[in-house]
Amino acid sequence: MFRNLEKKTYFYLGTIFVVLIFFNYLGWLNPIKSGIRAIFVPIFVKSAQFSVGLKDGYAFFKDKETFFDTYRECEADRQDKQLIEAQIKTLENENSELRQLLNFKDQSDILVLGAQVIGKNVEGAEKTIIIDKGSEAGTKIDQPVIVGNGILIGKIIKAEKDISIVRLINDSQLKIAATVLNHDHSLGVVEGGYGLSVKMNFIPRNEVVVIGDQIITSGLEMNIPRGLLIGNITAVENESYQPFQEAILTPSTDLSKPYIVSVLLTN
Amino acid sequence: MKYFLKALAIIILIFTIFVLHIGVANTLPYPFNNINVIFLILAWQIFFNNRPRAIWYMLPLAFLMELFTSAPFGINSISLFVSLISTKWLLDNLFTNRSVYIVFLSSAVSLAIYRLVFITLIYFINFFFYHVKIGVSKFFLDVGVEILFTSILMTGFYFIHFFFIKKFNPKYLSDRHI
Q: Whose CB has fewer CB within 10 Å in chain A, the N or C terminal residue?
């Protein structure tokens, strides 16, 4: 009798699952889904805020001396960066004037949508984050997601009505066409899945790539514009028996703590 | 009134389990954020309570997971359903002993079945419908971490259940000591 009850339970559960999946693809579950997400999104936000605060506190108290040394380095870097910024602005103005002289067609401005990170994927096998903007706000699959003024952190892989899921660049399933800011402008493919680091593969062996070189998006991929910063090279693997060399890079931003991001509405 | 309170208690329990799952996924550092709290609690119900009705909790929890995951709708639910049914069958027919090793082994096997069904369904969808990218070798590295830590935690729950709930329960005391 007990076994019959078990079999009945499994049968009813299986039937309910099939019916739910069917209703979902008909779109009948959307109001229920939106309502439930509206209840849980604030919890996700609080949890994400707590997580960021906890990591910041831990990083500070873990090693106070290193923290202050890094702070002093940042101060020194800031002054150098101010000078470079001024030079860049001058070059931008010159570039604009030259383009006008040559009657170049202006590149259309890309629309940017700000979003807040409300949490990570609850199903732990992927490195993805959830943002609070969905297809209603204009997000679509394959749109790039950045932080700051242009540091790429991932791509949108799922756009629901009110939320979107972003796959981070250190996820094993994401590949981005990239270029190295070196003399040869080496092209390659950046992929994740190496813990905190990211690897750039398919760099031609005859091109010189050194530690410290910056990696940006190459613009050869649809929907991802050229020039988004990905990271800096920290190690190079150039074996004679391999047809290509590989570079290990550290992302330019901490991918465990994104809080406010921007979606480039490129499509 | 009694049924209303019971229903309310179940809703609060499901809410708490899911919030705990969110908390673990968002707050703990790698590799602890891979612990699958929902699977842990559902498997615990099957291992220790052996009530088929407890498996009904899977329905709302699986639905909640589907709302916040990148996989196509239904993949996680079906994988969880199949793995828990397989677990029940294994515990009734193969791993009938309830020792520490069996608890660890059956937890690991159940999670492995869960992820195996998950990736099979993803490949099925890739073949017939649209393309969902998946990198097999690196995916299983994360899954291995999930299986290891969730199974260790399940074993810990077994110790708590055995020593504090069962062993110190007066109804298990021998008549000789009365």
A: N
In percent, the amount of chain B with pLDDT more than 70 equals: 83
The ipTM, to two decimals, is 0.74
Answer positive or negative: Cα dihedral of B118, B11, B14, A128.
positive
Cα A169 to Cα A230: distance, rounded to the nearest angstrom: 8
Domain range summary for chain A, segments of one domain joined by +: 2-60, 63-101, 110-267
What gap in Å lies between CA A211 and CA B89, rounded to an integer? 55
pLDDT per residue over A178-237, tens digit each?
Answer: 999 988 889 999 988 766 678 999 999 889 998 988 999 998 888 899 889 999 999 998
B12 contacts chain A (CB < 8 A): no
- In whole angstroms, give the CA distance from residue A24 to residue B69: 15
Q: Per this entry, what is the length of chain A? A: 267
- The residue-averaged pLDDT of A230-248 equals 89
Domain A110-267: assigned CATH number: 2.40.10.350
Q: Any CB–CB contact under 8 A between B34 and chain A?
A: yes
Find the radius of gyration of the CA atoms of chain B: 18
The residue assigned the tokens 């593969």 is A201
A123 touches chain B (CB under 8 A): yes
Tokens of B157: 């729950």
- A38-65 mean pLDDT: 73
| pLDDT of B178 above 50 | no
Distance between the two ends of chain A, CA-based, in angstroms? 59
| DSSP label of A122 | S
Whole-angstrom Cα distance, residue B133 to residue A175?
A: 10
